[in-house]
Design brief:
The chain is of the alpha+beta class. Helix content is 16%, strand content 38%. It has 14 helices and 37 strands. The radius of gyration is 29 Å and the shape is globular. The two termini are 46 Å apart.
Length: 690
Amino acid sequence: IASTQPSTNWHLKENARDHHTSKFSSKELIVRRGQAFIVTFNGAEQPEQNLTFIAETGPKPSKLSKTQATFGISSTVSKENWSAVLQSTSSNSVSISISSPPNAVIGRYKLSVQSTSSGSSSPANLGSFVLLFNPWSSGDDVFMPNKAECEEYVLEEFGIIFAGNKNHINSFGWNFGQFQGDILNICLSMLDRSLNYRQDPVTDVSHRNDPKYLGRVLSAMVNANDDQGVLLGNWSGNYEGGKSPSSWTGSGEILQNWKKSGFKPVRYGQCWVFAAVLTTVLRCLGIPTRTITNFSSAHDADGNLRVDEFYDASGNNLNRTADSIWNFHVWNESWFSRSDLGPSYSGWQVLDATPQEESGGIYQCGPASRNAIKEGDVDLDYDCPFVFAEVNADCMYWNYDPKTGKKTLIFSTSTTIGQFISTKGVGRDDRVDVTNDYKYEEGSTKERDIFKKARKKLGLEDKFDPTAPTPREIDQKPDISGKFKVAGPLEVGKDLNLILILENLQSDAKTVHVNMTAWSTVYTRRPIQEIWKDSISITLSPKEEKQFPIKIPYTEYQQQLTTDNTIQVTALCHVEGGIQVLVQRDITLDNPAIDIQVLGEAKVNKEVDVEVIFTNPIDMEVTDCVLQVEGNDLLRGILQIDVPPLKASETSSTKFKLTPFEKGSKHLLVNFSCDKFADIKTFKMVNVID
């Protein structure tokens, strides 16, 4: 080899096409493991047979830790090791096809070449490339046989996240943006900032061939707890000093901000933001990943597969324990095999980057095999009991007297938790229900048997639990039943109209004292501020049903509403001579609509006008109006436009220009905020032609 630095042709276009990495906007070669790529270099004067290649990654590459490979030219590709096969030679250049094993460590590699015949000359550096997981390769742990699923769960940059509550599911778009400018580098530096890397870099890098290891490490790194990770969580309802979690529209801005600030945690995240950022990072590295929304999701803090909620005599939720039932919770599923557990536990694995409970001393969660959750195998790695409880826990509602410390069970239920578990469809923008993949049919004997099996594995069946209700308490039957019915639109800016329906189930008259409250909450159902309260006393004759209309004017709730637009309404009914009855309803109010129109055809590298239309639905002025727009391949970065204040019922039209730079179906995401409405989101599919 000549002593001069050889020049290398990485065949970026062809290699990227073959390796499904064309969407990365990088001048560096990015390829997937277990698959050949071509490289041509000049300056080789010796016979090619005498060339030795060295591929190495991490701070201290070694053969022992599988972070260094030395290989010569061979006639065939090796399945187990790195190998090089000669493609062609000319007077001064050589083309080589290099293959990595399907279980190679992923990350940035340095490639060098040495001539064995010229004695002790030092290796010549050919440059660097990045190696990723390969879901298209059958030897890879992340192999996904269905190509359409590979497209969606690795290459798709647009997602839909489901939110709201079980009575009222809504959704919004998200820009994962895993192929944007610097995202791959940020994902790689995330790995180098993890606690594991800081404690023992050599061992950490040697484990980077294992998706379950990386999934667990990244579930810790996406939250800021323990390790100065990407996002700081905040569920207080007050987001001063940062951006409110509901204002983000994509992961790119969050990851860029983290890097720009010198890797200081970005403020603020809530569950869907943590899950969306983890989706971006894992898709970027080549692990098929999606977001999952669980409605009525349990946070079982003490590991007893039971969630306790306490109410005072007035019907206020006392927020006394770390246990809670969230209106919804968003986590991730990633697709890979579980060599540690066996083939029946391979496939979708639950990962959760939201910091809820510590696991192994830090805030991380998973991978928990979805099959293990369904079968109640809660003794398997990792964090199965917590995930099992999220979709299966029993709920106990108690009345608590702060003066005496006495608690009385109001009622318990085993069918509330884990409903309408949702994810986006493959190649289309609709909701797919995956509840049956998490559990057997609610109320079936199989489902109850699995619950008992899980309790037994956790040692809960045999242990006396002084906090549990007595069988007598569980079996007591109420004299009346009640429910809240919605009687009007559930929209921010309109009065909230409900009907409380109470029915006497007995054949003698009952006197009932009802204490009602309404609180603004965040989506985790944490009470923030009281909005309204009232109390009534009534007599119900035998088997009688009565209706009581409730009206909470917009002017009464407007100041207290959080950015989640959620209100919890409670009626605690004290029945004379009988047990108490708790009636509650979680209300999610919809924001007014916003409309996007693309005016004309969207063509590559041609300007096109876009119009966003918003009508102020309330009879007061709205101010501080800001429009935020983003969309991969449609515009670079985020466009922010200040919109003039709008008088009552006034309509605003905001126009801006786009110059799309890639063809295909793209998504434009819009977020509109003002002083009265937080984060009105919508998205529009834009078909870009050549």
